Amino acid sequence: FLTILLLWGEAGSETIRYSMPEETESGYLVANLEKALGLRVGELATRGAQIHYKGNKELLQLDTETGNLLLKEKLDREELCGVTEPCLLHFQLILENPVQFFQTDLQLTDINDHSPEFPHREMLLKIPENVQPGTVFPLKAAQDSDIGNNAVQNYTVSSNLHFHVVTLSRADGRKYPELVLDRALDREEQPELTLTLTAVDGGSPPRSGTTTVRIEVLDINDNAPQFVQSLYEVQVPENSPVNALVLTVSAMDLDAGIHGNVVYSLFQGGGASQPFVIDGVTGEIRLSKQLDFEVTNHYNIEIAATDGGGLSGKCTVAVQVLDVNDNAPELTIRKLTSPIPENSLETVVAVFSVSDPDSGDNGRVVCSIQNDLPFLLKPTFKNYYTLVTEGPLDRESRAEYNITITVNDLGTPRLTTQHTITVQVSDVNDNAPAFTQTSYTLFVQENNSPALRIGTISATDSDSGSNAHITYSLLPTHDPQLALSSLISINADNGQLFALRALDYEALQTFEFRVGATDQGSPALSSQALVRVLVLDANDNAPFVLYPLQNASAPFTELLPRAAEPGYLVTKVVAVDRDSGQNAWLSFQLLKATEPGLFTVWAHNGEVRTSRLLSERDAPKHRLLVAVKDNGDPPRSASVTLHVLLVDGFSQPYLPLPEVAPDSVQDDNVLTLYLVIALASVSSLFLFSVLLFVGVRLCRRARETSLRDCSLPEGHFPGHLMDISGSGTLSQSYQYEVCLKGGTGTNEFKFLKPLFPNLQTQATAEERENAPVRNSFEFY
């Protein structure tokens, strides 16, 4: 297994190198990686290709659709690599499914974009006048950030009679100038000379920089200082404190007096700034700022020793910076997948890289995670690791993992970096919603207001997210007579049940239906529960008097023989109540009578009986007001008016009308007579129209129904149907059709089912006198 892994790593670590000049404009096409790697068109996009550069700075941009590797911004070779040659930028190409790595190097070639620059605008040389021709005077070299041919290649000096400049090369290839005396100086003739030194690079076109060389001619000083060593080498740990002693240099001058006093100075540092200072008297070189091995690991310092006569010598100090373990390992997450499904196997959770800028064992790292987690760390490519699941996860037992990745280096002392990532486990819809009850029983008072909440059903789902988001619904009912959608609605979000309209106990006492709870998973899971609704009765119907009828055009009159015994049954008030229970228990009461004490009404059956013998002094005509009351809360009632006519025998159908007093007739004038005639004419015409309309309607209704024929009796037949309704919000009413018929000697009551679903409130009719009626009734 180890051999296969190593071979796989070697196969995936082949380096692809491209080259381009620095300062190329952004958007430059570096290469087409699909063609270079032999991949299919579009494979980079499907495998989630990513380009990573050290430090996470995005220098290149990969177009995964076309496979083109483009330059995202201008690249400055001097900024990225300094003097390092060749300048290579290392990139990693990461592919997924499966995970695969490719090493890509981009070499930046130098262009001549920097001109040579001298460290000072003016250089001062103090030269004794007795210096012999051919004497060489070192000059400070110009600095050029470019490299190779684009660096400084030649030095020239302005035309003069005494000096020329020669260009020499150091061991590292850098050019430096030296001024050569061609003709002896004469202080008395010319005490000072000013020359222009020009540095020219080898670019195309070439760039140049200049400085002024001012020469002071001194009096005789024939010995220049000499260093004990021309090259000093020293090693300094990078964690050395500021002002720490690096090295002490020493130079000697054979001259005496002022010409033998040597002063030390930093002559040429090889860079814009050096972290060193030198004591001009003692020659001690100390640190002026902190060293950093990761930035610069070596320095070349040139030290000049100058005597009082202006002569100088130089030496080179090579400082090697020693690395210490002062950098903790760095961990960079390249890819993090969260959440991950709970049923996934060996899923790549994270891809990360580790690095340590230290060197040697200080830069070697070891990665680890906690042992009690179902995850594994797998090394993949160089310093890249993948974090994968070891087996299937269970969100219900643990929905989140905090994974701490620990990176240790092998330095002394060891430094540690920890990075904690949080991995969420996403839910899989493996649990159906469960109702808190298998069945629900709800009680609703009838005549409820529309949109009344009658109850709530509830279900739970142990899943999470959309898999636990439950939607409630009404399931289709198998009862074709139950219009469930017009009775009940359900809130799909919280399971609240609402009655869409007022319920009527008399029409619908109980019904049941099923509700469903469905989650939002894929595929969706659901469950069902039974809901039973019981409608509670309310006292919303007043008693309805079936007999005697109160909507006749003429009042109904009962005949009572004067020879009737006490307890004689005069008539019976028949009433019904559409409510149930105690709301339908009826009681009868005599409210008002023409002759108190003559009649009694039985409270439970409505029978009207005489309470004593009749006498001659009793009025021949009596009016009784009987109340019918139910036992509801609050109670409802209805009243009926009875007319009783005393006769000597059943052969006397009526009594003569009382005579009108002559005085009242004499008071009427002609105007009153005309008014009465006009009112009588209008009333007669209206009554005739109403009777004709009612008669046509009754005949048409008789033909449409299957009831047996009913012949109209003699006299006035009531021209409309009796309508009764309660004060509630019932959606249905009942009408009863009454047919008066003679030819029988007993009172018969026959009831049929309601003919029309429209029940209107019947107000108690006032008495209309002197209307002959028959003494036999039949109700159909």
UniProtKB/TrEMBL annotation:
Domain Cadherin: 16-118, 119-227, 228-331, 332-435, 436-545, 552-660
Transmembrane feature ranges: 671-694
Source organism superkingdom: Eukaryota
Keywords: Calcium, Cell adhesion, Glycoprotein, Membrane, Repeat, Signal, Transmembrane, Transmembrane helix
Annotated SUPFAM superfamilies: Cadherin-like
One Pfam family from the record: Cadherin_2
Any one biological process term the GO annotation gives: homophilic cell adhesion via plasma membrane adhesion molecules
Keyword Transmembrane helix among record annotations: yes
Membrane-related topology note: Single-pass membrane protein
Protein location: Membrane
A GO molecular function held by the record: calcium ion binding
Record's GO cellular component terms: plasma membrane
Protein name: Cadherin domain-containing protein
Native species: Cricetulus griseus
